[in-house]
Amino acid sequence: MQRPIRFSHCDPAGIVYFPVYFDMFNGAVEDWFTQGLDIDYATMILQRRLGLPIVHAECDFVIPSRMGDTLTLGVLLERLGRSSLQLRINGEHEGQVRLSGSLTVVTTSLDDFAAVPIPDDIREAMKRYQAGCES
Amino acid sequence: MQRPIRFSHCDPAGIVYFPVYFDMFNGAVEDWFTQGLDIDYATMILQRRLGLPIVHAECDFVIPSRMGDTLTLGVLLERLGRSSLQLRINGEHEGQVRLSGSLTVVTTSLDDFAAVPIPDDIREAMKRYQAGCES
Amino acid sequence: MQRPIRFSHCDPAGIVYFPVYFDMFNGAVEDWFTQGLDIDYATMILQRRLGLPIVHAECDFVIPSRMGDTLTLGVLLERLGRSSLQLRINGEHEGQVRLSGSLTVVTTSLDDFAAVPIPDDIREAMKRYQAGCES
Amino acid sequence: MQRPIRFSHCDPAGIVYFPVYFDMFNGAVEDWFTQGLDIDYATMILQRRLGLPIVHAECDFVIPSRMGDTLTLGVLLERLGRSSLQLRINGEHEGQVRLSGSLTVVTTSLDDFAAVPIPDDIREAMKRYQAGCES
C-alpha cells in the first residue's frame, strides 16, 4: 500500500506528526481487510456490526518522513488468537524501514462492545493471508 | 490536565478513535512543559529551535471513552537520559484508568535534526518535577 | 471560549492548517450548546438522537495564527429558522480578528437523517442567548 | 482524483465529519499541482519557498457520504489573479454531486509571508489547465 506524505501530515518541524502514522495504520488495516483478505471492511462494520477496537498500539519511529515522500506500508499477521489478533505494520521508503508498529485488535460486537470469536470466514481468510506471506 | 471528549474525537462506533489519544498525548507534553516545567513550549520550539521528536510511542487502551466524558491526563517522567526522556501518560475518568501510554522523546536540534543533550535549565526543571511527583 | 494554538494545529509553514479551524468551530458549537444554551450536547446527540449536520461552512482567514497564540472564539446566532440555524464564529487574538466563519446547521433526526423542527426547549434557549447577545 | 471514505473520516453519526472534506480539498490541491499542472508541490513549498495559504474557504455539503463510498474530486480553476487564485472543488459519487466547495489561495513567500505574483511557469501551467478544461 502506497501512501503519499502530504503537507497536512507534517508539523512545524517539517516532518510527519507521529499520530498521523497511527491513522495511516488504521487505513492500512481497512485496506488489508478489503484488498488483502477480500472481506469488505465497511460491510463488516456497518452490516455485520463487527468492530475492531485497538487495545494496544505501539510504534518505533526510526527515520522521519517529509512531504513529497511516499511510504510503502506492509501488514504482517503476527498472532491470530480466538478473538484477537496482532498485526505488524512496517513503513518503508526506497527500501529503507522508516517505522515499524504493532496493533493488537479485539474482534468486538458493536451492539454490546463484548469481545466475540473471530468469525470463521474471516479466520480462514487470515490464515490464507498468513500462509501466503510465509511462502 | 482535563480533556473533554468531543464529537470529533469519536468514530462511527461512538468511541474515541485511538490515534486521537496520541494527539492528546502530544498536547499533554506541551502543557507539561509550559505549566509543569514552566518552560514555554512554543518558545522552545520556535526560538531555541529545540525539537522533541517521538522515537517510540505505545499505549494500552483499557476502557473506551465516549463523547461527553472528561479525561484527566497525568504525566510521569519515567526516565531522564542524556538526550532522551521517557514519559508515561495516564488517562483517567472518575478514578478509573482508561488508558496508559508511553512516549520516548529525543531532544533534537531543529536545524540539523541531530540529537542534542537536554539543556541544563530543562534538565533541572525535569528533576524538580520528578522530585515533586515522588514526594 | 479560549483555544490554545498547539504544535499539532500547525503545518510545515508554521501556521494553523485551515481545516483545523473548522474542527475548532465544531468544538465551539459543542461548547455553545453545553455552556451557552445549557443543553448538554452529548445527551442531545446520543440520547435525543438529534444531529446537527453542517450543510454550509465558510470562513475568511484574515491573519494566520501560530503555535503559542491563544484564540478567543465567539459564537453569534445569525439566523434561527424552523429546522436550521446559522452561526457566525469569530476568532480573535488580543482584540484582533484573525478569522471569521459561518456554519449553517440543520437539525436532523439521527434515526432517518431527515430534517426535524428545532425542538421547543432548544429554540427557547437559542432565543434567550440571542437576546442576551443583543442587549 | 479518487478518495475512499474511511472509518476515520466518519463521526459518531456515521457520516464524514465536515472538516475532513477541507483536508481532502488541500490534498486535492496538492495532487492538482503535481499531476494536473506538472509542478511538484513539495518542491514548490520546500525549495522554492512558495506557500499557498487559504484566505477563504467554503463548501456546500449536499449529500452526506459514508464509510465505503468513494468520492471523485474534481478541480476547476475559477479565477486566476495576479497573486491569488480561486479553485472550485466538487466531490461526486456515482455521478451525483455530494459537495461543492471553493478555496481562495494567495501565493505567498514562505520567508516573509508577503503575497507574491504567481510565478510565470506556474501561471502558464494554470492557463494550459484552464484551456484544457474548457475545451
TrEMBL record, chains A, B, C, D:
Molecular function GO terms recorded: fatty acyl-CoA hydrolase activity
Coiled coil: none
Domain of life from the UniProt record: Bacteria
InterPro entries named among the record's database cross-references: 4-hydroxybenzoyl-CoA_TE, HotDog_dom_sf
Protein name: 4-hydroxybenzoyl-CoA thioesterase
Source species of the chain: Azospirillum palustre
The organism's taxonomic lineage, starting at the top: Bacteria, Pseudomonadati, Pseudomonadota, Alphaproteobacteria, Rhodospirillales
